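TEACHING EXERCISE
Course module: macromolecular assemblies
Task: Read the component lines below, then compare them to the predicted structure of the full complex.
Student: A.B.
Group: 4
Components provided:
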Amino acid sequence: MATKQRSSAAGQTLDKSQLLHMYEQMKTIREFEERAGKEFASGKVPGFVHLYAGEEAVAVGVCSHLTDDDYITSHHRGHGHCIAKGVDLRAMAAELLGREAGACRGKGGSMHIADVNKGMLGANGIVGGGFPLAVGAGLTAKTNGKGQVAVCFFGDGAANQGTFHEGLNLAGIWKLPVVFVAENNGYAESTPVTYHMSCRDIADRAAGYNMPGVTVDGLDVLAVHEAAGEAIARARRGEGPSLIECKTYRYYGHFEGDTTTYRTKEEVNAYRTRDAIEAIHRSIVERGIATAQELDAIDKKVQDSIDLAWQFAESAPYPSPEEALTDVYVKYP
Amino acid sequence: MESILFMSSPLVGIIANPASGRDIRRLVAHGTVFDNNEKTAIVRRVLLGLEAVGIQRVAYMPEHDFGILPRALTELHGHHLQLAAEPLEMVVLGTSADSTRAAQSLAKLGAGCIITLGGDGTNRAVAKGCGTVPLVPISTGTNNVFPAFLEGTIAGMAAGLIASGMGDERTIKRAPRLEVCINDVAIESALVDVVVSSLPFVGARALWDMSVVREVVLSCVTPATIGLSALGGALLDAGYERGEQVGMHIMLGAGGSQVLIPLAPGLISWVDISEHRRLAVDDMVLCQPGAGTVALDGEREIELSATSVVEVRLCADGPYVVDVPAVLEAAAHAGRLHRQQAD
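Instructor-supplied answer key:
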């Protein structure tokens, strides 16, 4: 009989502590991003920042199934993935400020935060740069044979890059434990997906690489969690890669300073009324899982941790000039 | 120029849902993606079918997702469509409410038939707004009972013939529906099934784990369906006569028999049944209390608290649905598909 074993990863298995942890993580990402935007506006952050606010449900819904032994690759909007994967907030803030205590000793900045001890293989300034890394990590995971998985977060713009097709093809033919998570926020920089993508729904492309493709509401952390749970369990069982498309939205511009003339205030407001954090807050309270006071206490804890992280970063020293010659492939005299 | 929407010749509506056919059942079962380029190709064939039987006016639901209709109207291999197609004037929200409002607009404009592309959920949304306008539902979803796998060309011809006056009791049937009341307030309808589960959240919507399902109410019992409605087919007794309209209430759990049903594409399972009974029109089911969710036509839609009271009533006043083979048969008998050869 052609029955299929279902995993136990679905949303119904979430208990109170898991739900509160997911809420806390989403809130942490939001507060970190709001603070990063303010620090950037004040001129303290060199380079660019691309804020993840609005998309928290995707990173948290997916990463809540992962351990430090699993790998993720990210993109230019990578702060949320770092936090959801457990990268230290102080090291992140210090990295944004270019300090020696940063996750990459201040050399990477916002777009290149990595922490291999946490399985975070790096944010990435190259659009579509994560696919080859995730496929390589997937090959490592398959070779190790310990049930690890690799998750590749990418945007709708990256789905039109050659690396997307090459990466999914390799993962498909080698049956690698990779979960490709499309964060379709509707715009590749300023170009709407309705213009730049021939098929509009990234999940449609999965069939071309012999893997399942699904579309979920990326503003619903429980929907993302359920779909990701099934895809990750499938990868751990050795059944190969999957593609999950999360329809989501970024609250801020492509980068801080973007005037966002390509979208209306009404559109932004419409998405803000569906805010993922408010939705899970409401669900938790209405279902009697926790009280509003318990969630307030989490909010306070999050705010304190963000404040401490930025205070730590601002007081941390800059790397010495000689540091520029370390951690490189060529040894200088 | 006057909009075609307000002219007097027969009008056919098309509501094509760009979001159907890519839910979680691709991961938990063996469903495959139904992509929008395929839906576009189907609509293109629908349009050609409509044109072939003389339809000159088509109105369609606009959407920002993909633009199924505008794309279908192009790339016709040089064929110049004689019919005119216009989008309905409506605000697009990108939710199922669009389908409901499009159906309401089409009913108001006097459409003679509406062709839908989607699954049970899409048709549920359309049924809320279409009034007495008959539907030709084409399946582009996953677990579909209400819509059929129809060739677009045939669907277009049948819809065109209905809009042109071929509709009668032989060619159009009225489907049942299930009215769902929560705490004495009627809040929703389902076309095929209402399922109460212990899953606490709407989440990814689909249901595939029978260990969480408490009870199922079916609007009609037919063999050869997929999803939880298949329970009804598996529980048919010898007294059932093919074509008979009956509903069913099924309690899952230990103490009774097991039935083998196709829950989703390629996902077949033995399900424990504790009891079941047939339902007649106007029969009411009072569901067992308990926190969880109510799924309508296969998708979790309503979250329940422990004190929610859920009642489901079988109603006869569902949407009108075109019997496609019957229309084409009637058209042939009436000579609508015949003409003399040119000399």
